[in-house]
Design goal:
The chain is α/β, with parallel strands linked by helices. It contains 15 helices and 11 strands. The structure holds 5-hydroxymethyl-3,4-dihydroxypiperidine.
């Protein structure tokens, strides 16, 4: 089944997403060092020790890149602003950084594209990391100051804003699994980051309300967890994985509580007074964003808490090795509305896949991407038919970019980037979507 714009309700937004460090070229415009530069410079953390210093050179090519967004008939462009570009030392404003986002905003508006900003997509200024980064409670106030600086400049022209992309990655992946910067594997650091990331979210929302901004949201990455077998132990571990990955963050923001099964492991390491912060964390938002890619099969592993492991599943996989499971998107849309957000608008703020795309005779065929998109659009249709207040669907990503610890190998873009010449070539999926999203 293939879908076009006409299959979706009037006013439904189609968008495409990127993030600052993954595309801009962090070496330009007076941006300061980030913990991703430090992490990438440390052996074995990132494939080929690659970093975002040049990336896609979007800093100099953003006008042409906005032509690509408009050319595929997308309504929205979800981008992020870089704390370290706006405040290279974490605290002091860099006028060049503000000017860049000003130009980028105008480039979107000139093409009729709705600007959808995210304020933090992982490039923490190194001087903030030196002060403990997400482990330090003060980060919530520092982040609010940065929010004030950037949104005072461009906030009036934003269609929507969300403070933090994917709090699970910011906290768990980076402080417990050590897979992302700052590369820690420390349960106390994790518990603090899990809480402070939500406190910072709440303070940023309050700051933007103070500036008179509206259409503010929260963006979560959600991963469906199925037990690897029929045992009670596997079911419990899948529920714990779900708690850590999904319910902790949704629960904090929308219910003012953390799941008991996760507190069972993290509570001894939580910062003092965490129970008193839910008033700030739960500051009302106007929409909820869901980033969805895959599911995991979970089994007990023995050993220390949380005592689970991922087991390889049987479904077709993407280049990342992630199973393709569109059912999970349907599950999350219905469950989130039912258990957390009620009538609040939902937006799928990221969905997409990496594939081994190569140019042949000037063209790039990426049929797996289009099939993936259609299968997930089918899940959107099912959720809409059941009354889920879904308002938009954004693809990850506009163009191939820096896929963090995987370097430049994993190509998530609708547009191919040659990382030698930086030439952009739209893939077959881009051309197909441009037709389907046309009015
Ligand atoms: O590239 C990332 C992005 O930065 C956040 N969401 C998932 C994408 C694919 O891994």
């Amino acid at each position: 089944m293939t879908y076009t714009r006409a299959d979706f309700p009037e006013g439904f937004d189609f968008g495409v997403a990127t993030s600052s460090y993954q595309i801009e070229g962090h070496g330009f415009g007076g941006a300061g060092p980030t913990h991703w530069d430090d992490f990438a410079a440390t052996p074995s953390n990132v494939k080929n020790a690659e970093n975002g210093r040049l990336a896609c050179d979007h800093y100099h090519r953003f006008e042409a890149d906005m032509d690509l967004v408009a050319g595929a008939n997308f309504d929205c462009y979800r981008f992020s602003t870089s704390w370290a570009r706006v405040m290279p030392d974490g605290f002091t404003v860099n006028p060049e950084g503000l000017d860049f986002y000003d130009r980028l905003t105008d480039a979107m508006l000139a093409r009729g594209i709705k600007p959808c900003a995210t304020l933090y997509h992982w490039e923490l200024p190194s001087p903030i990391a030196d002060r403990g980064g997400w482990r330090n409670r003060d980060i919530a106030d520092w982040f609010a100051d940065y929010t004030h600086a950037i949104m005072s400049r461009i906030g009036d022209r934003m269609h929507s804003v969300a403070p933090i992309n994917e709090p699970w990655c910011v906290a768990w992946l980076s402080h417990f699994e050590g897979y992302h910067a700052p590369g820690l594997r420390d349960i106390r650091a994790t518990a603090r980051a899990m809480h402070h990331v939500l406190l910072a979210h709440g303070k940023a929302i309050q700051t933007m309300r103070g500036l008179g901004l509206s259409n503010l949201g929260a963006v979560f990455n959600l991963e469906w967890a199925d037990p690897a077998d029929d045992s009670l132990e596997a079911a419990e571990k899948a529920a714990l994985y779900d708690g850590i990955y999904n319910r902790w963050f949704l629960g904090g923001v929308f219910k003012g509580e953390y799941p008991q099964n996760v507190l069972g492991g993290l509570e001894p390491y939580m910062p003092d007074g965490w129970q008193d912060d839910f008033g700030t964390i739960g500051t009302p938002v106007d929409w909820c964003g869901l980033n969805y890619y895959t599911r995991k099969l979970i089994a007990p592993s023995g050993g220390a808490w949380p005592g689970f492991k991922e087991v390889e599943g049987p479904l077709e996989k993407t280049l990342m090795g992630w199973e393709i499971y569109p059912e999970g998107l349907y599950n999350f849309l219905t469950r989130t509305a039912r258990e957390y957000t009620g009538t609040l608008p939902l937006i799928v703020t990221e969905n997409g896949l990496a594939s081994p795309d190569v140019i042949e005779n000037g063209a790039i065929e990426d049929p797996q991407r289009l099939a993936y998109i259609d299968a997930h659009m089918h899940s959107l249709q099912r959720a809409l038919a059941e009354g889920v207040p879904l308002r938009g669907y954004y693809l990850w990503s506009l163009m191939d970019n820096y896929e963090w610890a995987c370097g430049y190998e994993q190509r998530f873009g609708l547009v191919h980037v040659d990382f030698e010449t930086l030439e952009r070539t739209p893939k077959a999926s881009y051309h197909a979507l441009a037709k389907r999203l046309g009015r």
